[in-house]
Amino acid sequence: MSTDLTFNNSFVNNQDEITIMSSLVNLEFLSKAVLDESGIVQWSSWHDTRWVEYWSAPQEFCDKYSSCGPNSYCNPYNGVKFECTCFPGFEPKSSRDWYLRDGSGGCLRKKQGVSICNDGEGFVKVEHLKVPDTSIAHVNMSLSLQKYDYAKKNDLNRKKRMLAILGVSVAVLFLLVVSVVYLLIMRKKIITLLASRLEQSSAL
């Protein structure tokens, strides 16, 4: 049997999906890919009488999902240092765990807050991040960084307007309920007063 491990690779990036697919050129070659419950993928090939591992992932500490926890990122280029690094303005949630090279607890904002963005909202450049999960992501290739910032601000303004409308609606509804309750109470008092006067008139 031939042992040609040449692959056909295809990359798709459109409005519906972003996928990478690999397939063997030599279809006579037996191979299998297994994803276990811990998230490890093993690609094996059949050799004589047994399966031999050809490739597996994750291969590095940073390949493991959420290995560094919230508000931190995994940098495989830290050399001999710990791979997990807190975002600017944050510190390890547990110094002890961090010292033991366990970053799963992540980081918390420093108690004496550090201003990162200076003039309000913005972005801090952080390098060597792992690519996030894109299972529900949408890529708009025609959107520039400037257009993205503009769209983000518009979306934020739209949300603020919706919250303002919701707040006004709740206030109006509250006033209506209070008015109705007040009218019902006044009506009851008037009826009681009239009934009392009628009884007095009848007694005379």
From TrEMBL:
GO terms for biological process: recognition of pollen. The chain crosses the membrane at residues 162-185. Residues 5-94 form the S-locus glycoprotein domain. The keyword Nucleus does not apply. Keywords: Disulfide bond, Membrane, Signal, Transmembrane, Transmembrane helix. Pfam families: S_locus_glycop. This is S-locus glycoprotein domain-containing protein.
